[in-house]
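User: Fold both of these, please.

Assistant: Here is the first one.
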Amino acid sequence: MATSSAHPSFQPRPYASNLSKLPDRNNQNLGASHNAPISTFPPQQSTAAAAQRAERERLERDGAAALAQLSEEQREEIAEAFALFDLDKDKRIDYHELKVAMKALGFEVPKSEILALLQTHGSSSTALKAQGQQSSGYQHSKLLLPLAAFQNLMAVRILARDPREEILRAFELFDEGGKGKISLADLRRVARELGEGLQEEELVAMIEEFDLDGDGMIDREEFLGICLG
Protein backbone atom coordinates (compact mmCIF):
# COMPACT_ATOMS: atom_id res chain seq x y z
CA MET A 1 0.00 0.00 0.00
CA ALA A 2 1.47 3.29 -1.05
CA THR A 3 2.01 5.95 1.61
CA SER A 4 2.23 9.69 1.38
CA SER A 5 5.99 9.40 1.75
CA ALA A 6 5.97 7.97 -1.75
CA HIS A 7 5.03 11.46 -2.92
CA PRO A 8 7.36 13.80 -1.04
CA SER A 9 6.43 16.69 -3.38
CA PHE A 10 2.77 16.68 -2.32
CA GLN A 11 1.85 19.75 -0.23
CA PRO A 12 -1.54 21.17 0.87
CA ARG A 13 -2.81 23.87 -1.49
CA PRO A 14 -1.84 27.29 -0.09
CA TYR A 15 -5.43 28.67 -0.06
CA ALA A 16 -6.87 25.68 1.77
CA SER A 17 -5.58 26.86 5.11
CA ASN A 18 -7.13 30.32 4.53
CA LEU A 19 -10.73 29.16 4.01
CA SER A 20 -11.55 29.95 7.63
CA LYS A 21 -10.66 33.60 6.95
CA LEU A 22 -13.31 34.04 4.26
CA PRO A 23 -16.40 35.99 5.43
CA ASP A 24 -19.44 34.01 6.42
CA ARG A 25 -22.04 34.74 3.72
CA ASN A 26 -24.85 34.05 6.17
CA ASN A 27 -23.61 36.64 8.65
CA GLN A 28 -21.85 39.03 6.30
CA ASN A 29 -22.66 42.71 6.90
CA LEU A 30 -24.06 44.04 3.63
CA GLY A 31 -23.89 47.70 4.63
CA ALA A 32 -26.70 50.24 4.76
CA SER A 33 -28.84 48.29 2.28
CA HIS A 34 -28.86 45.15 4.44
CA ASN A 35 -31.90 46.25 6.43
CA ALA A 36 -33.46 48.40 3.68
CA PRO A 37 -36.89 47.35 2.41
CA ILE A 38 -36.77 45.51 -0.89
CA SER A 39 -38.84 47.11 -3.64
CA THR A 40 -41.20 44.83 -5.49
CA PHE A 41 -40.75 46.94 -8.66
CA PRO A 42 -37.68 47.24 -10.88
CA PRO A 43 -35.80 50.54 -10.25
CA GLN A 44 -36.80 51.98 -13.63
CA GLN A 45 -40.47 51.18 -13.07
CA SER A 46 -40.42 52.69 -9.58
CA THR A 47 -38.82 55.86 -10.92
CA ALA A 48 -41.38 56.17 -13.72
CA ALA A 49 -44.27 55.66 -11.27
CA ALA A 50 -42.85 58.32 -8.95
CA ALA A 51 -42.48 60.75 -11.86
CA GLN A 52 -46.08 60.16 -12.97
CA ARG A 53 -47.34 60.66 -9.43
CA ALA A 54 -45.42 63.93 -9.14
CA GLU A 55 -46.82 65.12 -12.48
CA ARG A 56 -50.39 64.28 -11.40
CA GLU A 57 -49.92 66.22 -8.16
CA ARG A 58 -48.47 69.18 -10.08
CA LEU A 59 -51.46 69.19 -12.44
CA GLU A 60 -53.90 69.14 -9.54
CA ARG A 61 -52.25 72.23 -8.06
CA ASP A 62 -51.74 74.15 -11.30
CA GLY A 63 -55.08 73.05 -12.74
CA ALA A 64 -57.06 74.20 -9.73
CA ALA A 65 -55.32 77.59 -9.87
CA ALA A 66 -55.91 77.86 -13.62
CA LEU A 67 -59.60 76.96 -13.33
CA ALA A 68 -60.05 79.72 -10.78
CA GLN A 69 -58.66 82.25 -13.27
CA LEU A 70 -60.93 81.23 -16.14
CA SER A 71 -64.21 82.94 -16.81
CA GLU A 72 -67.45 81.10 -16.14
CA GLU A 73 -67.98 80.92 -19.89
CA GLN A 74 -64.59 79.23 -20.40
CA ARG A 75 -65.27 76.69 -17.66
CA GLU A 76 -68.63 75.89 -19.23
CA GLU A 77 -66.94 75.48 -22.61
CA ILE A 78 -64.55 72.88 -21.15
CA ALA A 79 -67.38 70.98 -19.45
CA GLU A 80 -69.50 71.04 -22.62
CA ALA A 81 -66.63 69.73 -24.77
CA PHE A 82 -66.13 66.83 -22.36
CA ALA A 83 -69.86 66.03 -22.13
CA LEU A 84 -70.25 66.16 -25.91
CA PHE A 85 -67.64 63.45 -26.52
CA ASP A 86 -68.20 61.38 -23.37
CA LEU A 87 -70.45 59.13 -25.42
CA ASP A 88 -71.30 56.64 -22.67
CA LYS A 89 -71.67 59.39 -20.03
CA ASP A 90 -69.41 57.70 -17.47
CA LYS A 91 -67.38 60.92 -16.89
CA ARG A 92 -64.31 59.34 -18.48
CA ILE A 93 -63.05 59.59 -22.05
CA ASP A 94 -60.70 57.39 -24.04
CA TYR A 95 -58.01 58.28 -26.57
CA HIS A 96 -60.33 59.06 -29.50
CA GLU A 97 -62.80 61.02 -27.39
CA LEU A 98 -59.98 63.03 -25.80
CA LYS A 99 -58.51 63.84 -29.20
CA VAL A 100 -61.74 65.29 -30.60
CA ALA A 101 -62.65 67.04 -27.34
CA MET A 102 -59.29 68.84 -27.34
CA LYS A 103 -59.72 69.70 -31.01
CA ALA A 104 -63.13 71.19 -30.26
CA LEU A 105 -61.42 73.50 -27.77
CA GLY A 106 -58.89 74.53 -30.38
CA PHE A 107 -55.97 72.23 -29.51
CA GLU A 108 -54.49 70.10 -32.28
CA VAL A 109 -52.42 67.58 -30.32
CA PRO A 110 -50.24 64.81 -31.83
CA LYS A 111 -50.95 61.19 -30.97
CA SER A 112 -47.78 60.78 -28.89
CA GLU A 113 -48.75 63.69 -26.64
CA ILE A 114 -52.29 62.43 -26.12
CA LEU A 115 -50.98 58.98 -25.19
CA ALA A 116 -48.55 60.58 -22.73
CA LEU A 117 -51.42 62.51 -21.12
CA LEU A 118 -53.45 59.33 -20.73
CA GLN A 119 -50.45 57.41 -19.39
CA THR A 120 -49.81 60.06 -16.73
CA HIS A 121 -53.32 61.21 -15.79
CA GLY A 122 -55.59 58.36 -16.89
CA SER A 123 -56.76 55.14 -15.27
CA SER A 124 -57.07 51.72 -16.86
CA SER A 125 -60.47 50.09 -17.13
CA THR A 126 -58.98 47.15 -15.20
CA ALA A 127 -58.22 49.44 -12.27
CA LEU A 128 -61.72 50.90 -12.44
CA LYS A 129 -63.29 47.45 -12.29
CA ALA A 130 -61.11 46.61 -9.29
CA GLN A 131 -62.65 49.66 -7.57
CA GLY A 132 -66.12 48.40 -8.40
CA GLN A 133 -66.74 50.93 -11.17
CA GLN A 134 -68.10 50.09 -14.58
CA SER A 135 -65.95 50.58 -17.68
CA SER A 136 -68.93 50.29 -20.09
CA GLY A 137 -67.46 47.49 -22.18
CA TYR A 138 -64.06 49.10 -22.78
CA GLN A 139 -61.11 46.85 -23.39
CA HIS A 140 -59.25 46.03 -20.18
CA SER A 141 -56.04 47.69 -21.37
CA LYS A 142 -57.65 51.00 -22.40
CA LEU A 143 -56.75 54.16 -20.50
CA LEU A 144 -59.51 56.59 -19.58
CA LEU A 145 -59.19 60.25 -18.56
CA PRO A 146 -61.57 61.46 -15.83
CA LEU A 147 -63.45 64.75 -16.01
CA ALA A 148 -61.44 66.46 -13.26
CA ALA A 149 -58.13 65.76 -15.00
CA PHE A 150 -59.55 66.98 -18.33
CA GLN A 151 -60.74 70.22 -16.73
CA ASN A 152 -57.33 70.83 -15.16
CA LEU A 153 -55.43 70.04 -18.35
CA MET A 154 -57.60 72.29 -20.49
CA ALA A 155 -57.57 75.14 -17.99
CA VAL A 156 -53.76 75.18 -17.94
CA ARG A 157 -53.62 75.09 -21.74
CA ILE A 158 -56.21 77.83 -22.21
CA LEU A 159 -54.37 80.18 -19.86
CA ALA A 160 -51.09 79.50 -21.65
CA ARG A 161 -52.61 80.16 -25.08
CA ASP A 162 -51.65 83.26 -27.01
CA PRO A 163 -54.58 85.77 -26.94
CA ARG A 164 -54.15 86.17 -30.70
CA GLU A 165 -55.03 82.50 -31.13
CA GLU A 166 -58.27 82.99 -29.20
CA ILE A 167 -59.18 85.99 -31.35
CA LEU A 168 -58.40 84.16 -34.59
CA ARG A 169 -60.57 81.26 -33.45
CA ALA A 170 -63.42 83.75 -33.03
CA PHE A 171 -62.62 85.17 -36.48
CA GLU A 172 -63.08 81.71 -37.99
CA LEU A 173 -66.57 81.53 -36.52
CA PHE A 174 -67.48 84.66 -38.47
CA ASP A 175 -65.55 83.77 -41.62
CA GLU A 176 -67.87 81.27 -43.28
CA GLY A 177 -66.08 79.31 -46.00
CA GLY A 178 -62.58 80.23 -44.85
CA LYS A 179 -62.14 83.10 -47.29
CA GLY A 180 -59.96 85.07 -44.84
CA LYS A 181 -62.37 87.99 -44.47
CA ILE A 182 -65.63 88.83 -42.71
CA SER A 183 -68.31 90.13 -45.04
CA LEU A 184 -71.56 91.92 -44.33
CA ALA A 185 -73.35 88.60 -44.95
CA ASP A 186 -71.15 86.96 -42.28
CA LEU A 187 -72.06 89.63 -39.73
CA ARG A 188 -75.73 89.28 -40.62
CA ARG A 189 -75.59 85.48 -40.15
CA VAL A 190 -73.76 85.61 -36.79
CA ALA A 191 -76.09 88.31 -35.47
CA ARG A 192 -79.07 86.13 -36.40
CA GLU A 193 -77.54 83.01 -34.77
CA LEU A 194 -76.79 84.91 -31.56
CA GLY A 195 -80.23 86.43 -31.49
CA GLU A 196 -78.89 89.97 -31.71
CA GLY A 197 -81.49 92.31 -33.13
CA LEU A 198 -79.04 94.48 -35.09
CA GLN A 199 -80.38 96.54 -37.93
CA GLU A 200 -78.84 96.36 -41.40
CA GLU A 201 -77.48 99.91 -41.14
CA GLU A 202 -75.77 99.00 -37.85
CA LEU A 203 -74.00 96.06 -39.50
CA VAL A 204 -72.94 98.23 -42.42
CA ALA A 205 -71.59 100.82 -39.97
CA MET A 206 -69.49 98.14 -38.25
CA ILE A 207 -67.91 97.13 -41.52
CA GLU A 208 -67.21 100.72 -42.51
CA GLU A 209 -65.69 101.58 -39.14
CA PHE A 210 -63.14 98.75 -39.09
CA ASP A 211 -62.53 98.19 -42.80
CA LEU A 212 -59.17 99.97 -43.07
CA ASP A 213 -58.34 99.01 -46.68
CA GLY A 214 -61.79 99.91 -48.06
CA ASP A 215 -62.63 96.52 -49.60
CA GLY A 216 -65.98 96.27 -47.81
CA MET A 217 -64.84 93.43 -45.53
CA ILE A 218 -62.81 92.90 -42.34
CA ASP A 219 -59.65 90.80 -42.67
CA ARG A 220 -57.71 89.03 -39.89
CA GLU A 221 -55.41 91.91 -39.01
CA GLU A 222 -58.30 94.35 -38.89
CA PHE A 223 -60.22 91.93 -36.65
CA LEU A 224 -57.19 91.60 -34.34
CA GLY A 225 -57.00 95.36 -34.15
CA ILE A 226 -60.66 95.55 -33.12
CA CYS A 227 -60.26 92.96 -30.36
CA LEU A 228 -56.85 94.01 -29.04
CA GLY A 229 -57.67 97.69 -29.13
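And the second sequence with its predicted structure:
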Amino acid sequence: MLPHVEIHGRGRGPFVLLVHGFLSSRAQWRLNLDALAEVCRPVVVELYGHGRSPAPADPAAYTVAAYLAAFEAIRTDTGAERWFVCGQSFGGGLAIRYALAHPERLHGLIFTNSISALSRLDPAEMERRATLIEQGGRTGLESMRIHPRHARRLPPDVKAELVDDAALMVPAAIARSIRVTRTDLYTGDDLHRLTMPVLLVNGQRETAFQPLRDKAAAAIPNCRVADLDGGHSVNIDAADGFNRAVTAFLTEVGS
Protein backbone atom coordinates (compact mmCIF):
# COMPACT_ATOMS: atom_id res chain seq x y z
CA MET A 1 0.00 0.00 0.00
CA LEU A 2 1.65 3.21 -1.19
CA PRO A 3 0.87 6.78 -0.09
CA HIS A 4 -1.00 9.10 -2.44
CA VAL A 5 1.34 10.53 -5.11
CA GLU A 6 0.96 13.24 -7.75
CA ILE A 7 3.53 14.04 -10.44
CA HIS A 8 3.72 17.58 -11.78
CA GLY A 9 5.84 19.31 -14.37
CA ARG A 10 6.27 19.38 -18.11
CA GLY A 11 8.21 16.20 -18.59
CA ARG A 12 11.70 17.65 -18.31
CA GLY A 13 14.38 17.79 -15.64
CA PRO A 14 15.03 15.42 -12.74
CA PHE A 15 12.31 14.07 -10.50
CA VAL A 16 12.08 15.68 -7.04
CA LEU A 17 10.17 13.95 -4.24
CA LEU A 18 8.41 16.52 -2.03
CA VAL A 19 7.55 15.29 1.48
CA HIS A 20 5.32 17.56 3.58
CA GLY A 21 5.32 17.92 7.33
CA PHE A 22 3.10 16.76 10.19
CA LEU A 23 -0.59 17.75 9.90
CA SER A 24 0.03 19.10 6.40
CA SER A 25 -0.79 17.85 2.89
CA ARG A 26 -0.04 18.36 -0.80
CA ALA A 27 -1.17 21.98 -0.29
CA GLN A 28 2.17 22.59 1.49
CA TRP A 29 3.78 22.93 -1.96
CA ARG A 30 1.06 24.92 -3.72
CA LEU A 31 3.17 28.08 -4.01
CA ASN A 32 6.26 26.18 -5.18
CA LEU A 33 5.07 23.82 -7.90
CA ASP A 34 4.96 26.24 -10.84
CA ALA A 35 8.46 27.56 -10.19
CA LEU A 36 9.95 24.12 -9.52
CA ALA A 37 8.29 22.63 -12.60
CA GLU A 38 10.40 24.94 -14.75
CA VAL A 39 13.51 22.91 -13.87
CA CYS A 40 12.26 19.56 -12.52
CA ARG A 41 9.35 17.16 -12.23
CA PRO A 42 7.89 17.47 -8.71
CA VAL A 43 6.61 14.24 -7.17
CA VAL A 44 4.25 15.19 -4.34
CA VAL A 45 3.56 12.52 -1.73
CA GLU A 46 1.11 12.69 1.19
CA LEU A 47 1.97 10.91 4.44
CA TYR A 48 -0.21 8.09 5.72
CA GLY A 49 -3.37 9.35 7.37
CA HIS A 50 -2.93 12.78 5.74
CA GLY A 51 -4.79 14.20 2.76
CA ARG A 52 -5.72 11.57 0.19
CA SER A 53 -3.35 8.86 1.47
CA PRO A 54 -4.57 5.64 3.07
CA ALA A 55 -4.46 5.20 6.85
CA PRO A 56 -3.16 1.66 7.46
CA ALA A 57 -4.24 0.02 10.70
CA ASP A 58 -0.92 -1.81 11.01
CA PRO A 59 1.60 0.30 12.96
CA ALA A 60 4.40 -1.28 10.88
CA ALA A 61 3.34 0.86 7.92
CA TYR A 62 4.37 3.98 9.85
CA THR A 63 7.94 2.93 10.57
CA VAL A 64 10.68 4.97 8.97
CA ALA A 65 11.84 1.80 7.21
CA ALA A 66 8.38 1.34 5.67
CA TYR A 67 8.33 4.95 4.46
CA LEU A 68 11.78 4.56 2.90
CA ALA A 69 10.60 1.44 1.10
CA ALA A 70 7.55 3.34 -0.14
CA PHE A 71 9.74 6.17 -1.42
CA GLU A 72 11.92 3.64 -3.24
CA ALA A 73 8.81 2.11 -4.84
CA ILE A 74 7.71 5.57 -5.96
CA ARG A 75 11.14 6.25 -7.44
CA THR A 76 11.02 2.95 -9.32
CA ASP A 77 7.56 3.83 -10.66
CA THR A 78 8.89 7.11 -12.07
CA GLY A 79 11.67 5.27 -13.88
CA ALA A 80 14.31 7.50 -12.30
CA GLU A 81 17.65 5.95 -11.44
CA ARG A 82 18.44 8.98 -9.28
CA TRP A 83 16.37 11.92 -8.06
CA PHE A 84 16.26 14.70 -5.49
CA VAL A 85 14.36 14.48 -2.20
CA CYS A 86 12.99 17.57 -0.44
CA GLY A 87 11.40 17.40 3.01
CA GLN A 88 9.58 20.00 5.09
CA SER A 89 9.64 19.76 8.90
CA PHE A 90 8.55 16.18 9.85
CA GLY A 91 9.06 15.32 6.19
CA GLY A 92 12.58 16.70 6.49
CA GLY A 93 13.38 13.94 8.95
CA LEU A 94 12.11 11.33 6.49
CA ALA A 95 14.08 12.96 3.66
CA ILE A 96 17.32 12.87 5.67
CA ARG A 97 16.68 9.28 6.70
CA TYR A 98 16.16 8.35 3.02
CA ALA A 99 19.39 10.12 2.05
CA LEU A 100 21.31 8.21 4.72
CA ALA A 101 19.84 4.87 3.62
CA HIS A 102 20.06 5.40 -0.16
CA PRO A 103 22.83 7.89 -0.99
CA GLU A 104 23.37 6.25 -4.36
CA ARG A 105 19.83 7.20 -5.40
CA LEU A 106 20.20 10.94 -4.80
CA HIS A 107 21.48 13.83 -6.86
CA GLY A 108 20.95 15.96 -3.77
CA LEU A 109 18.95 16.51 -0.58
CA ILE A 110 16.86 19.55 0.39
CA PHE A 111 15.21 20.13 3.74
CA THR A 112 13.66 22.99 5.70
CA ASN A 113 13.34 23.73 9.44
CA SER A 114 13.00 20.31 11.08
CA ILE A 115 13.13 20.12 14.85
CA SER A 116 11.87 16.55 14.40
CA ALA A 117 15.06 15.56 12.55
CA LEU A 118 17.61 17.46 14.60
CA SER A 119 16.47 17.18 18.22
CA ARG A 120 15.25 14.46 20.54
CA LEU A 121 11.82 14.88 22.11
CA ASP A 122 10.67 13.43 25.40
CA PRO A 123 8.94 10.05 24.82
CA ALA A 124 6.44 10.89 27.56
CA GLU A 125 5.49 14.06 25.69
CA MET A 126 5.07 12.09 22.46
CA GLU A 127 2.77 9.64 24.26
CA ARG A 128 0.79 12.52 25.75
CA ARG A 129 0.20 13.99 22.29
CA ALA A 130 -0.79 10.65 20.78
CA THR A 131 -3.22 9.96 23.62
CA LEU A 132 -4.73 13.43 23.26
CA ILE A 133 -5.52 12.71 19.63
CA GLU A 134 -6.87 9.22 20.31
CA GLN A 135 -9.15 10.44 23.07
CA GLY A 136 -10.13 13.71 21.45
CA GLY A 137 -10.45 12.57 17.84
CA ARG A 138 -10.82 15.46 15.44
CA THR A 139 -11.22 17.90 18.33
CA GLY A 140 -7.93 16.66 19.72
CA LEU A 141 -6.27 17.21 16.35
CA GLU A 142 -7.63 20.72 16.03
CA SER A 143 -6.42 21.61 19.53
CA MET A 144 -2.80 21.02 18.51
CA ARG A 145 -0.85 24.24 18.11
CA ILE A 146 0.55 23.13 14.75
CA HIS A 147 -2.87 22.42 13.23
CA PRO A 148 -3.21 24.69 10.17
CA ARG A 149 -6.35 26.31 11.56
CA HIS A 150 -4.08 28.14 14.05
CA ALA A 151 -1.63 29.45 11.43
CA ARG A 152 -1.27 33.23 11.33
CA ARG A 153 1.21 33.97 8.55
CA LEU A 154 -0.02 31.78 5.71
CA PRO A 155 -1.70 33.27 2.62
CA PRO A 156 -5.48 32.88 3.02
CA ASP A 157 -5.93 30.61 0.00
CA VAL A 158 -3.16 28.23 1.06
CA LYS A 159 -4.40 28.19 4.66
CA ALA A 160 -7.92 27.41 3.48
CA GLU A 161 -6.68 24.46 1.41
CA LEU A 162 -4.57 23.15 4.28
CA VAL A 163 -7.54 23.40 6.67
CA ASP A 164 -9.79 21.60 4.17
CA ASP A 165 -7.20 18.85 3.78
CA ALA A 166 -6.83 18.61 7.55
CA ALA A 167 -10.46 17.53 7.68
CA LEU A 168 -9.38 14.41 5.73
CA MET A 169 -6.85 13.34 8.36
CA VAL A 170 -7.52 10.13 10.29
CA PRO A 171 -6.86 10.74 14.02
CA ALA A 172 -5.79 7.14 14.74
CA ALA A 173 -3.24 7.33 11.92
CA ILE A 174 -1.91 10.63 13.21
CA ALA A 175 -1.45 9.06 16.65
CA ARG A 176 0.49 6.21 15.01
CA SER A 177 2.65 8.75 13.22
CA ILE A 178 3.61 10.22 16.59
CA ARG A 179 4.23 6.92 18.33
CA VAL A 180 5.97 5.10 15.47
CA THR A 181 7.39 7.50 12.88
CA ARG A 182 8.38 10.38 15.13
CA THR A 183 10.34 8.21 17.52
CA ASP A 184 12.86 7.31 14.79
CA LEU A 185 13.26 10.64 12.98
CA TYR A 186 16.23 11.97 14.94
CA THR A 187 19.29 12.19 12.68
CA GLY A 188 21.49 14.60 14.63
CA ASP A 189 24.24 12.05 15.24
CA ASP A 190 24.36 10.93 11.59
CA LEU A 191 24.52 14.20 9.66
CA HIS A 192 28.23 13.75 8.97
CA ARG A 193 27.36 10.69 6.86
CA LEU A 194 25.44 12.72 4.26
CA THR A 195 27.72 12.53 1.23
CA MET A 196 25.55 14.20 -1.41
CA PRO A 197 25.06 17.95 -1.98
CA VAL A 198 22.63 19.28 0.64
CA LEU A 199 20.57 22.48 0.75
CA LEU A 200 19.02 23.61 4.02
CA VAL A 201 16.40 26.31 3.49
CA ASN A 202 16.15 27.99 6.87
CA GLY A 203 13.25 30.13 8.09
CA GLN A 204 15.06 32.55 10.38
CA ARG A 205 11.92 33.63 12.24
CA GLU A 206 11.67 30.25 13.94
CA THR A 207 14.09 31.10 16.72
CA ALA A 208 13.97 27.64 18.30
CA PHE A 209 15.43 26.14 15.13
CA GLN A 210 18.40 28.48 14.72
CA PRO A 211 20.83 26.56 17.00
CA LEU A 212 19.87 23.41 15.08
CA ARG A 213 20.48 25.22 11.80
CA ASP A 214 24.03 25.96 12.99
CA LYS A 215 24.51 22.35 14.10
CA ALA A 216 23.41 21.02 10.70
CA ALA A 217 25.52 23.50 8.75
CA ALA A 218 28.60 22.50 10.75
CA ALA A 219 28.00 18.74 10.66
CA ILE A 220 26.97 18.13 7.03
CA PRO A 221 30.06 18.00 4.81
CA ASN A 222 28.60 19.51 1.63
CA CYS A 223 25.87 21.73 3.04
CA ARG A 224 24.79 25.08 1.73
CA VAL A 225 22.24 27.16 3.67
CA ALA A 226 19.68 29.62 2.36
CA ASP A 227 18.62 31.86 5.26
CA LEU A 228 15.24 33.43 4.49
CA ASP A 229 12.89 35.84 6.23
CA GLY A 230 10.31 33.16 6.97
CA GLY A 231 9.12 30.91 9.74
CA HIS A 232 8.59 27.19 10.18
CA SER A 233 6.75 26.86 6.86
CA VAL A 234 9.45 28.80 5.04
CA ASN A 235 8.50 27.39 1.65
CA ILE A 236 5.11 29.09 2.03
CA ASP A 237 5.74 32.33 3.91
CA ALA A 238 8.96 33.02 1.99
CA ALA A 239 7.92 31.21 -1.18
CA ASP A 240 9.76 33.41 -3.66
CA GLY A 241 13.07 33.03 -1.83
CA PHE A 242 12.53 29.30 -1.39
CA ASN A 243 11.76 28.87 -5.08
CA ARG A 244 14.87 30.80 -6.13
CA ALA A 245 17.16 28.89 -3.75
CA VAL A 246 15.81 25.46 -4.67
CA THR A 247 15.68 26.01 -8.44
CA ALA A 248 19.28 27.27 -8.37
CA PHE A 249 20.35 24.20 -6.37
CA LEU A 250 18.49 21.81 -8.69
CA THR A 251 19.94 23.46 -11.77
CA GLU A 252 23.51 23.42 -10.48
CA VAL A 253 23.56 19.95 -8.92
CA GLY A 254 21.34 18.20 -11.42
CA SER A 255 23.08 19.46 -14.55
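The chain has a mean pLDDT of 95.
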